[in-house]
């Protein structure tokens, strides 16, 4: 069985919060617990997070929506391509996270131990 890691980083690419999901779940399921209780001015995400519910929630918060549009969307939303380029920060974070073999191989048996090693790895990454 696989595990998905949904992560939220700040503008510098540092981990703010993450959520573990089963590998067969849609990514959009984990967004609500990921952003709940956190204030932000904008969210940059890829097309896996393109859903009307997420866009409506972000608009309600007054946050700028910078989400790559899924090709099947009937009415595409405007995308600020210059801001979207900053999405590489989350990709860089995941590359650094996967340098830790236990995370890349999903070696831990329980969600609790897997979460603990992600927190530990994020602390090491931030200390570099």
From TrEMBL:
<dbReference type="GO" id="GO:0003677">
    <property type="term" value="F:DNA binding"/>
</dbReference>
<dbReference type="Pfam" id="PF01609">
    <property type="entry name" value="DDE_Tnp_1"/>
</dbReference>
<dbReference type="InterPro" id="IPR002559">
    <property type="entry name" value="Transposase_11"/>
</dbReference>
<dbReference type="GO" id="GO:0004803">
    <property type="term" value="F:transposase activity"/>
</dbReference>
<feature type="domain" description="Transposase IS4-like">
    <location>
        <begin position="2"/>
        <end position="124"/>
    </location>
</feature>
<dbReference type="GO" id="GO:0006313">
    <property type="term" value="P:DNA transposition"/>
</dbReference>
<protein>
    <submittedName>
        <fullName>Transposase</fullName>
    </submittedName>
</protein>
């Amino acid at each position: 069985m696989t595990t998905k890691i949904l992560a939220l980083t700040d503008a510098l690419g540092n981990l703010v919060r993450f959520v573990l999901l089963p590998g067969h779940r849609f990514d959009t399921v984990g967004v609500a617990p990921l952003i709940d209780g956190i204030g932000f001015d904008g969210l940059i995400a890829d097309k896996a997070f393109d859903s009307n519910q997420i866009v409506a929630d972000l608009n309600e918060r007054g946050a700028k929506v910078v989400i790559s549009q899924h090709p099947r969307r009937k009415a595409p939303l405007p995308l600020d391509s210059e801001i979207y380029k900053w999405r590489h920060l989350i990709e860089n974070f995941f590359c650094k996270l996967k340098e830790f073999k236990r995370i890349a191989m999903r070696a831990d048996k329980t969600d609790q131990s897997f979460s603990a090693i992600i927190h530990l790895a994020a602390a090491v990454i931030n200390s570099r």
